[in-house]
Structure formats: structure tokens, C-alpha cells
Amino acid sequence: MNNSNPIGIFDSGIGGLTVVKSLDSSLANENIIYFGDTARVPYGSKSNSTVIEYSKQDAKFLLSKNVKMIVVACNTASSIALESLRKEFEIPVVGMIDPGAKAAIMATKNKKIGVIGTEATVSNKAYSNALLKLDDSINVFEKACPLFVPLAEEGWTDHKATILIAEEYLSELKKEKIDTLILGCTHYPILRNVIQEVIGKNVQLIDSGSAASVEVEAYLAGRGIKNTSNNIGTHQYYVSDVPKKFKQIAERFLGREVDHVNKIDLEELKII
Amino acid sequence: MNNSNPIGIFDSGIGGLTVVKSLDSSLANENIIYFGDTARVPYGSKSNSTVIEYSKQDAKFLLSKNVKMIVVACNTASSIALESLRKEFEIPVVGMIDPGAKAAIMATKNKKIGVIGTEATVSNKAYSNALLKLDDSINVFEKACPLFVPLAEEGWTDHKATILIAEEYLSELKKEKIDTLILGCTHYPILRNVIQEVIGKNVQLIDSGSAASVEVEAYLAGRGIKNTSNNIGTHQYYVSDVPKKFKQIAERFLGREVDHVNKIDLEELKII
């Protein structure tokens, strides 16, 4: 494996771009291949077997591009498919759950940690299990927030309706007096300001994507496959549907121009 | 074709059940095969080529069950894929757009008609084209409401946030003083009360699914293939993901017990 080989990142859609943004500031010289499965988004409301099937196809596509590592930049896929991917593929596969859990354990003082995510992530108790494995004296309070993804995609980041919805979703966590809240979906950092305002300024928010980018760096360093180039890395984007819309949203997210958004055929994804 | 053959209905997910409900009261003796493509829902944010590909697969699945007619119980698929389906298949294919447009033309007095739907339906100007073809003196005002589908799926039918979101989406249509509003997505009847309250009691709401069920009856009668049985028809439900959740929601929608929700494999759908 060559150090200059790209890091492969996949998500059900655009949410994983918040992970690209984190990597962009910490590992700016790495080449990145991103795949967003926009023809089948969202994953968060789908069954475990479907999410595993889709995730394997996504990973195989990235492998066909000679990536040196795979980042599952989707909490739903991380919570359901990570073990299957690690069993099937030899290269390192980094998910969102463990890094987010570790960062939350380090941040909490009162040992009361809240987790918000999709229905699939929450019903699989992915974060509860990871947190309790690290420290069984932690109290975990999980809450599914299905409307946050469409609100983020709609760009209603400071709308009054978003505040009302956040108040409804977060009220129980607030009552439990959590001091740390894991944003357990890569879309949620887009709504960070509203979430912070509603849950209270004293609660520390953990962005699982940022936490994962620290783990990516450690993996690369540990295996001696960090890119040693002094040049800024290239980014290539692939989606399974509507590259034009993806480009707009990606440029807004990343705050930089995005070239080369390629649409791949779903049939191609199945054949790989 | 035997008169007792079932009517085939497909939708991207659960929204088409509002159409089943309409048929259930007007054509209670018809047998129904319903397919909800819950592994790939939603269609409304996807590209035309993807929606056409998925719709053809859905229709082929229904044909494999010997249906005598296909109802495209999804406005997005109707607006994009109807002509392709009619070209490819010989049996009658009924969509949502023309019936909804006809009902709106009959209802309006001031010739100002509003249309709400998914991004795909609105950007394709499906209803504008259908309405203006029927009467070119009509003024049409279309508005995409992407958050209505997840709000309906979340069951927030009278939440304050839903009212705020409806106020935002419907404010322009209200200013234009429309007297008729087409609910151009089969999910929207679930939010009917909020929509009626926000747009005003004097505006007539057109449920495209109800309008389509009138057309289904006319088609069957015109071709002499109405079921003449005196027994209540059977319903069979197929989905591409998570039959359990589908069953719960279907029973809430239809107000009756739903047996036989079968999960079919996506691969199977592609091979048909």
C-alpha cells in the first residue's frame, strides 16, 4: 500500500462531508475519495440487513479506487455494519461510534452523557454499548431525532420551527442534567448552534466526525501510511444520484470549491 | 384478463396507503396488491432517471403478480415516470397528476390554484402543465414542501412546529389568494388538518389520491374489468424493507388490520 493512496470515505449522502471538513484541517495533505449513496439516502430509517448490504457495496466501490483506509462517515452504517466490513476487508475501517464515545468519556464530569442520532443508531444502542464498555458507571440517555436530517438538508439552521423541534427532542435529556451530548449523526453538526442553545451552554457537544478524524490520524501513523507529501491533497467525489445538487451543498459545507463530482450507476455498484 | 385479478398499486413507501384508503371505500370488492419501495424511499429528492428506473422495477414486480391495472400512488413517480410506464406496459396505468388537476379545475372559482409537493414534482412542473393543458386561463402557484413527508412519517400531525413550518411553506400561496390547493403528494393528507388551518377554511383542498380513485373506477368500468364479486376484496402488501414498521403505520392509516406484509429482496426486484 502506497502512502499517497487515498483515504476512502462513504456516507448515505451529504452528512459525511462534515467528516471531510474535519480531515481537511487535520490531514490536509491526504488524498480523499468520497462516496455519497444519494440514490438510496437515508439509511437511518432502514433495516439492519439493508444497511449492511448497502455499506458493503459502498466499501467495495472505494476499494476499487485503491483506498488505503475506509472511513464509515455515517453513524447508522457505523453502528450496524462496522464489524461486517472489518471481517470482510483487510484494510483499516474506522467508524464514528468508538471515537465519539471515547471523546464523550473524556469530556464528562458528572458521568451523564446524552446521545442523539437516527432511529437505527438509537434502537441499536450503539453508543450506550460503546460508552458502558469504556466505563460502566456512565449514565447514558439516548434519543432519536428523525427530523434533524431533513431540517439540516433544508438548511433551516436557525428557523423557529427547528428550535421548537429541538426543544421537543431534547427536553428529556435536559431533565436528566447531562453535561455532555454526542451528536451521533454526521448531519447534526450543521444544526450545532440550535442544539447548543436549546440544551444549554454548559453542555459540551461532541461531534463524532471530529472525534473520528483524530482516530484516522492515529491509525495512519500507527501503520506508517500517513501521506508525507507537502502538497494539499486532492478530493474526488462520487455519488449515486444528482451530482449537481451534491456539488452546491458540498461547497456550502466545506467552504471551498468542489470539482469532479461523478455520478456512478447503481448497477455498477452491485457488480463490483 | 380476469375481472377478479388484483389492482396493483405502488409508492416509494407508505404514502400510497392514503390511495388504498380511498379505493377501499369506493371499490371495496377489488383485490389489491400494494408495493412500497421502503428500501429506497424517498423518491421526491432523487433525479428523474433514478425515479424512472425504480418505477419500472416496481411496475414489473406488480405485473409478476398478474395485476389488471397499475396505480402509481406516488406523485413524484407519476410526474416523472408515467409516460415511460405507459409506453412499456400494455395494461392501464393511472397516475396522480391528471386526476388531481381535473378535480382542482372543477373546484376553483377564482382560477387561482396552489400546488404543494416534493421537490421533484414541483421542479418538473407536473401540475402546472396538466392544469394549463385543461384551461390556459388558470393561475398556478407551486411550492415544494420537503419537510412535510418526514413530519407525516413522524406522526406530528398537530405539533406547533408543524404549524410553523406550514406557515412558512404556505405564506406565498396565501398571499396569492388561491381558492383551491392540490395536495400533490400522497403523504400530505395525513397533515390535512394543519394545512387547512394554515391556508384558511375557505380554500378547498384537493386530495390527489381520492381524485385518482375516481379515475380508477372509470378505467375499470370503461374496459369492462370491474370486479363483480359481492365479497370484500383481499389486500396483499409487499415492501422492500422493514415489514414490521410498515404494518404498524399501515394499520394506523387504514384503520383496519393488515395481514401479509411480505418483504421482497431488492435483487429480486432487479431480476424481474
How are the elements arranged and paired?
The structure is a homodimer of 272-residue chains.
Chain A: E1 7-11, H1 17-26, E2 32-36, H2 48-63, E3 69-72, H3 75-88, E4 93-94, H4 97-107, E5 112-117, H5 119-123, H6 126-134, E6 139-144, H7 148-154, H8 160-175, E7 180-183, H9 192-199, E8 204-207, H10 208-222, E9 235-239, H11 243-254, E10 261-263, H12 266-271
Parallel strand pairs in A: 1-2, 1-3, 2-9, 3-4, 5-6, 5-7, 7-8, 9-10
Helix pairs in contact in A: 1-10, 2-3, 4-6, 4-10, 8-9
CATH architecture of the largest domain in chain A: 3-Layer(aba) Sandwich
Number of helices of chain A: 12
Mean pLDDT of chain A: 92
Q: Structural class, from helix and strand content of chain A?
A: alpha/beta
Helix % of chain A is 40-55%
In terms of DSSP E residues, the strand content of chain A is 15-25%
Over all CA atoms, what is the radius of gyration of chain A? 18 Å
Output the helix-strand order of chain A. EHEHEHEHEHHEHHEHEHEHEH
How would you characterize this protein structure?
Two copies of one chain form a homodimer. Chain A is of the alpha/beta class and 272 residues long. Chain A contains twelve helices and ten strands. In chain A, the strands form two sheets. Chain A has a six-stranded parallel beta sheet, with helices on both faces. A four-stranded parallel beta sheet of chain A has the order 6-5-7-8, with helices on both faces. In chain A, α9 (192-199) links the parallel β7 (180-183) and β8. At the A-B interface, α7, α8 and α12 of A face α7, α8 and α12 of B.
